[in-house]
Write a structure and sequence with these properties.
Radius of gyration: 42 Å
Number of helices: 12
Helix content: 55-70%
Number of strands: 5
Order of helices and strands: HHHHHHHHHEHEEHEEH
Strand order of the largest sheet: 1-2-3-5-4
């Protein structure tokens, strides 16, 4: 009758309850007829009416647990059972399936009093018909009521626990899917960075060197030399391929750098970094200059890693990222006022928290000829600074 009826276990229990009630009604009729009781015909009529009314309940869609139609249907069964109790003492056996019906149809605040009233009616019927008071007359109906209540409450508890576990499983499956998607995205971004760095460090640098050599060769040739036209064409082809390689590098840069400068990407990073009681600020020092894509990627990833460590470990109230442009170098400083740590202690890769941020930042800076420094002490915050030498413009290298 509710969502639990869709399970195989509940369907089996309902069938057992139907068979139990119908079997007990049949037993009442048989015993009454075999004893030759004066009200046999009346017992048969009432039992048939009760069986018919009971069978109509599960077939009627409007009879549902907790609604008025269900309560009226149950009241009708109770009235017919009370009449059967008056006619035959054997009708008290029907009280047991009625307990389960009351606990199923009625809200618990009404079901428990109904079970008590039903048990009292069964005990009263036995005493009136037998004209004697026996312990069994009280123990039987009361034990039956207690078993019914314990069974229903226990099943409800198991059902709620099962629902909580089902919801937890659904949440875990969704979380696993999110983690898998995040890992795929991280892998894609890492591969894009690697390809951009490889193209810049190999193809782009090689084509740039070829272009410079061809320009030098072109200047050393006489104007009427037969090879001058071929050297010029080769230099133009190298220049076109260098531009194409650089466009590939730009296409493979991180999304934060696709639609703006490094400063804008760092400012967006500070704006979207949130943690309890943490304020993140960004500042630019010096005159900004255009940086090669690998430089921008390295500085952005360093800022992301350092700021992630601040959020995760530092318990800081303030953090500041400063991008400084100097004559021959560019520097990025990430400073926080958190709890700090001892840089002279265990290596970062051996720390208990499993952090790998600082070695990765140091390796990234070293690959571009730069350096990473970390200043920190317990209770005095942390300062991470990376310095990269500015690349020499091609015109100055050609000269």
């Amino acid at each position: 009758m509710d969502s639990r009826s869709h399970t195989h276990v509940t369907a089996a229990l309902r069938l057992c309850l139907h068979a139990l009630l119908m079997g007990l009604l049949a037993l009442v009729v048989v015993r009454t007829a075999s004893e030759g009781a004066p009200h046999t015909a009346a017992v048969v009529v009432v039992a048939v009416l009760m069986a018919a009314l009971y069978a109509a309940g599960p077939l009627a869609s409007y009879v549902q647990p907790g609604n008025r139609a269900g309560a009226v249907w149950l009241a009708g069964l109770g009235a017919l059972w009370a009449a059967l109790l008056v006619l035959s003492p054997d009708a008290l056996w029907v009280a047991f399936p009625l307990y389960f019906l009351q606990l199923h149809i009625l809200p618990m605040r009404w079901a428990l009093p109904a079970v008590v009233v039903t048990a009292g009616a069964a005990i009263t019927s036995f005493v009136v018909h037998r004209q004697e008071i026996e312990p069994g007359a009280f123990i039987g109906p009361l034990i039956g009521a207690a078993v019914a209540v314990a069974t229903v409450l226990g099943y409800d508890a198991l059902f709620r626990e099962s629902e909580r576990r089902r919801e937890l499983i659904v949440e875990l499956v969704a979380t696993r899917a999110d983690l898998a998607e995040a890992e795929r995205t991280a892998g894609t971004l890492a591969e894009r960075e690697r390809l951009a760095r490889e193209i810049h460090d190999t193809l782009a640098q090689g084509l740039s060197s070829i272009q410079l050599l061809l320009r030098a060769a072109e200047r050393s040739l006489p104007e009427d030399a037969p090879a001058a036209a071929h050297v010029g064409a080769a230099r133009e082809a190298a220049q076109a391929n260098l531009a194409e390689a650089r466009s590939f590098v730009r296409a493979l840069t991180p999304p934060d750098l696709e639609h703006g400068s490094l400063a804008a990407a760092l400012e967006r990073l500070c704006a979207r970094t949130t943690a309890p009681d943490l304020t993140v600020r960004f500042a630019v020092s010096g005159t900004p200059v255009e940086l090669p894509t690998p430089y921008e990627v390295a500085l952005l990833r360093t800022a992301q890693s350092a700021l992630a460590n601040t959020v995760r470990h530092a318990r800081a109230g303030r953090a500041e990222i400063t991008l400084s442009f100097m004559d021959t170098s560019v520097a990025l400083d990430v400073v926080d006022d958190g709890q700090g740590f001892d840089p002279s202690g265990a290596p970062v890769h051996e720390r208990a928290d499993g952090g790998f941020g600082l070695p990765a930042m140091r390796a990234r800076a070293g690959s571009l000829g730069g350096a990473l420094s970390v200043e920190s002490a317990p209770g005095q915050g942390t300062a991470v600074a990376v310095t990269l030498p500015l690349p020499v413009p091609e015109a100055e290298r050609a000269a």
